[in-house]
Amino acid sequence: MSDEDTLVRVKHRREKSNSIGHVANGSARRFRVRSTASSTTTEGDDASGSAGADPVDSEEEDDDGSCPSHESFVDLKDSVRECLEKEPSERNGEDLAVLLDFMQHMSSFASLPMSIKRQLCLKMVFAVVNDAGTVVMHHNEKLDAWSVIVNGLVEVVKPNGERVEYKLGDSFGAEPNPAVQYHVGEMRTMVDDCEFVLVEHKDFCSIMSTIGEHIEKDRDGLTGEIVSETERRTVGSQVGLVLIKGKPDKLIQHLVDDRDSNVDPHYVDDFLLTYRVFIHNPTIIFEKLMMWFADGALRDKIARIVLLWVNNHYNDFETNDEMTKLLERFEGALERDGMHSQQSLLNIACSVKARSRAVVYARANKDDALHFSVQGGKECGCGIFISEVQIDSPAELCGMKRGDEVLDVNGQPMKYLTLAKAQEIMKGSISLTITLKSNVLGFKELLGKTERDGSKVSSKNRALAGVLTQARGSMPNVIPVKSTKAVKIGDVVLGFATLRRKTSMMDKLMTILKSSKEGEDIPDEARTTTNPLRPSRSNPDITSISQYYGPVKSECPEHVLKIYRSDQTFKYLAVYKETTAQNVVQLALQEFNMTAEGSLEWSLCECTVTEDGVIKQRRLPPQMENLAERIALNSRYYLKNNNRSDPLVPDDLAPEIMRDAQAQLLSLNAQVVAAQLTLQDFAVFASIEPTEYIDNLFQLESRYGSPRLEEFERIFNREMWWVATEVCSERNVQKRAKLIKKFIKVARHCRELRNFNSMFAIMSGLDKPAVRRLHSTWERISGKYIRMLEDVQQLVDPSRNMSKYRQHLAEVSQEPPVVPIYPVIKKDLTFSHEGNPTYCDKLVNFEKLRLIAKSVRAVSKLSSAPYEISSMAERSGGTISDALLHMNTFEGGNVATMRKGGRVIQPRKKVYEQALMVRKVKAYLDGLKVVDTESELDRLSYDIEPQQAGPRVRRAPSPSPSSVSSQSAESNSTDQRRFRGGGMFGVDSPQAVQKMLGLVQTSKSKGAPSPSQSPAVSGANRGLQRNLPRVSARQQSVPTIQRTPSFKQEPVDLNKESSSVTSFYGAGKFG
């Protein structure tokens, strides 16, 4: 075989030679240089070609008036592709960073040191094979390159008939030794547009031979055993050593070792997140930290580490009594050594990070004394706190702790109760279900206030309150609670405390930080940073907590209630969330001009019509709050005279109330549906603790587990099945088409709201086989909606490991919040875990854990800020109202907020109607019933549209797209490539996204045969197949490859002439 025949073959490995003599051979399969210019020109043509108006569009009306914008992702830059297409010599530092980030998801690069990855990225060139079935390497062909597949699928048929597949991330070709090597077997592409990066054999050998030069091994002085490995790494202009492997003790020791923070800035964060993989008892770590704390030179460093630990992973302490006791010891040590600023920050972090928990406390009879004491109450301007717990008592055994705040007892809130009333409730029952939350800061505030008021406190309380006295120099103005101010609406004074209490825990935090920011004992992590990114929960900057947990509160009434009288007349009342039922009665009497009547004679009554038509009414407790959120769609609020027993709702009005309570998807506003999905998804996503990703990935038996992560996974699956269930359950074909259009609009709105998770779930539901086969339905979808769907699909093009989505995510993550696609998160973490060993020669592979921690940190930062309602409105066309915020109370923190000032006061009726739409959307989403099996969906699908024999004729959406096949050299012209006749990786061959989706799909049963493909998915609608995960069997979606052509098909050669990017087309032999 001549040198010309050994040119780099386009396949996983790219074999190159410097020979270019046969490029002009017209009968050969030639390479074509892909230029960015040609790609841009093509994009422009596409954009202009699709700009015409669709005749059908003008006839269609948007049922809910919420059609999304037509901004397209066609022009979204593919930064990975652009970097690959550059000559190696032209790549700059930014290009290198993009390629390194992309290659970290490739199994061939996963185990290589970072320095080796950098060198390979600097040498690699890019090649593409356009057509499936192309022979790219023959048996016994000389290997002159090492190659990695970055898109596509190939197969090698060995001489003995064995078949081996190479997929995304796999490598093949020359080994890193200078000996001449030959390929075994024949290699063919199995799909269109297979893409490769290649490194010439001599460069590959040269680079791989330097691995030892970058690695340093540290041995035990006595045994000579290797205890750690470090890599000399370059970051920008900085060069330093990074610990990549080590024994657990060495990794712990490295916490206090001198490190180059420019080269390895996140070691402490990464260790605190991932130590649980190789250390099962965290007390071992904390005890060592306590031992090092005794060393004055390490004291500040240890304090910073502990503050980071508490701030990032407080659940490590909440779920472990031994860790809690150690933390209390550490707090005592801070007090002893006069490190009051650190102590204050520790208390604040503990109070903010603590989660509510429920305990059950029981006594034998009511005469038995309580085994705990409480303090506080309304008279102190605070909640009820556990002040003392008897040792080894039932109270201690059930989980009560000193400093816990009592949130409710047997379902009754303690928020505004006096101490005497709270004690009465607790003593009134032998069994108490108590919701508690650790609030050390609030408890100390209570003790400090009690001391200043001259109250007598126990010796224990004096000792604890003394901490505040000693620290007063660094904690000014923190203890006093601001006096409350009454808010007046009309002539009614609303007596609720929360609205008028401007001092919050975050205000106290910021006061402490500002007052002591010049102090020398403030840890670095507590100082304000200049980072433009809003930090996340895992961010060591504790000052950032205020940005997440301290949203702006409304200064105007948030809600409007519709209050009826017995004569069915009504008034709209503007109220706050904290306005009580008694206050509403006073307001209603004023609005109805009934102020002459005493308010004590009237009460607020809730009348409900059940599904059976039964009318029920109940008087609401005078102190009940949040009335707007509590009321159901089939209920009304009435002003009732306590001296009369007449029914408030006549029987003939019950059907009307039931009709108004119906919430059907077609009657709901698509924007509001998308926004509600976004807030609900984000509420769960933002509550995921970083440790959950590790526990779930490594299947660790932790005390905390991964409850919120599993809920996030269930949400994705539920939304995906919901879409298919709604469509397949509708028997009317016109309504079915409207449902599909509604889902397309909701998906588009979700994209604009940066809720990519729901967007992808909806697209996946529409791509279910049971939905795709609905011929009569899809042919009623106009080109306008098909293009809208295709625009969304541009974002999740699976090419190059969904590089477009990853690039867009990187851009929008600069301004969180964002809800990412969960299957992609799962796929990346799974790959990092399964593609790298956790232990190497008895050493912990910390480089693997560092990679996983980096991914978790990036994901956590996406939830570092609440959703700002005004920004959501701007992104979605300006019609999203504050009702979305006011009608959603999420557990575990603030999910949404609003900007200060600038709020336009709207008519009460409009505010009520906006809130009513939100209530209907919430009721609809809460009552979803989904079919989560393929077989049942197929049954429903065939029931509404039986399979018909013979071909169907359908109208094509207008305008009809060009069916001309485009060359894959037009790198960004995904619109044209969608309509190619042949299969394409990620289009007709959906393995990439299908496998990704399979990671989170819990239901994989499929009884009925896979439905046939709808004609609507061809041509202009092929986008429905393009980027969505396939559930159908693989043989239906993978194109057939002709393995026995009538002529001898020669291999395709890659030539390193003027460009590093080469395209192949035509037939025959090059070279």
UniProtKB/TrEMBL annotation:
Residues 108-173 form the Cyclic nucleotide-binding domain. PANTHER family: GUANINE NUCLEOTIDE EXCHANGE FACTOR (PTHR23113), RAP GUANINE NUCLEOTIDE EXCHANGE FACTOR 6 (PTHR23113:SF249). Residues 669-908 form the Ras-GEF domain. GO terms for cellular component: apical plasma membrane. SUPFAM superfamilies: cAMP-binding domain-like, PDZ domain-like, Ras GEF, Ubiquitin-like. Pfam families: PDZ, RA, RasGEF, RasGEF_N. CDD domains: CAP_ED, RA_PDZ-GEF1, RasGEF, REM. This is RasGEF domain protein. One of its GO terms (biological process) is Ras protein signal transduction. PROSITE patterns: CNMP_BINDING_3, PDZ, RA, RASGEF, RASGEF_CAT, RASGEF_NTER. Residues 56-65 have a biased composition (Acidic residues). Residues 961-973 have a biased composition (Low complexity). One of its GO terms (molecular function) is guanyl-nucleotide exchange factor activity. Keywords: Guanine-nucleotide releasing factor.
